[in-house]
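[Automated response] Your request has been received and processed.

Submitted sequence:
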Amino acid sequence: MPFPTLRHFINDAVQSSDANTYVTDLPHTGKLHTLFLRCAMTNGATSGRSVSIFDVVDLIEIIGTGGEVILSYAPQELEKLVETLTGRPLEIIQNEAASGVQSGVFPLMFGRKMYDPAMYLPLGAWTQTQLRVTYSPTIAADAGFATGTFTIDVSLLITEDDQPLNYLGTLRTRRVADYVSLASGDAQFDLPLGDPIRLIGVYAYEAATDDGSDITRVQLGNDRNDNYYFDLDWPDFLDFNRNLFGAEIFHTARLLQTDAENWACRIGYIRQVVLEPIYSPSDANDTFSTFNASAYLGDRVTIQIRDADITAGAETFVVATADYRIQATAFGKSPSFFGVIPFHYQDEPENYLPAPKDSKVRLTLTQGGAGGTIRPLVQTVKRYS
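Generated structure:
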């Protein structure tokens, strides 16, 4: 029975440059199922206020010989794709404390799950296969990161070539476009032809803006607009995904905040926010503080902090001015700001959407607000050997 091994490939490689593209060659042999990329960086000496590992890493790619793009996406899109399909949050540590370490583990999958014995990346199909990680954090003592502290760690879930597997193909996941939405009108994209399409993802995000404001409708058809495979308004699109995949997502963070600051929790349609102050109360005086999520706007949670003094005859209840450490958790009904058009209900390559013979596959996104970051992606299956 063939079985994979988990191999530690890069051990916390510290990057001396604070803005660059890290490039490393992958092994020349083996059947790669999943590459686990762990990125970490240390906050500035005062705090990492309002930043996370998503403010460090810009782009993650797997590139084959001749520049062939096998995987390419930002960590924001990868997070949403994995959360949608698995129903679980990624391993993200957001810690705003002074000199705190922030990190994320990003699984780059070449099959239908972490270990897929029939879909994987045959590394021997190329003379060179590279991992590329582009990063550009803000270097600052407060609301930034410490210079020279970005690290990359890589593990490989891989099966050796001498173990036979039934190869059906490799899943390729690539961006179709990266643009800023307009206030109205349709944006249309012809998808690459030749390989069956497993799914199409649409990432649509704008800070402090409600989910579904920038893209209001998603359609997939042909370039003659006489045949539609998919046509839903954005809220119905996300509800369909939730019913199909069952994702119930929560995100956590250890914040350092004072009154009226915001936490970007990366979840829209927020159902609940739990705030737990990290401090030791004392009966030596008559003071305490209260913490409340006073407003939601898109994925932004405004945190209200009040300092109370209940000394008899001198009671006060005032706006906090000091920084407090807070353990925060936000719950949403779906990953939000992202949806999937699926063609993998049975999840066999012969049932994926084939390239039409007499037309192109066209994605149409109806725009409802200016300023959103819109990044559609396509996942196809291709045989390399």
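Summary generated for your ticket: Residues 77 and 203 are 6 Å apart (CA to CA). The chain has three domains: 5-172, 176-248+335-385, 254-332.
If you did not submit this request, please reply to this message.
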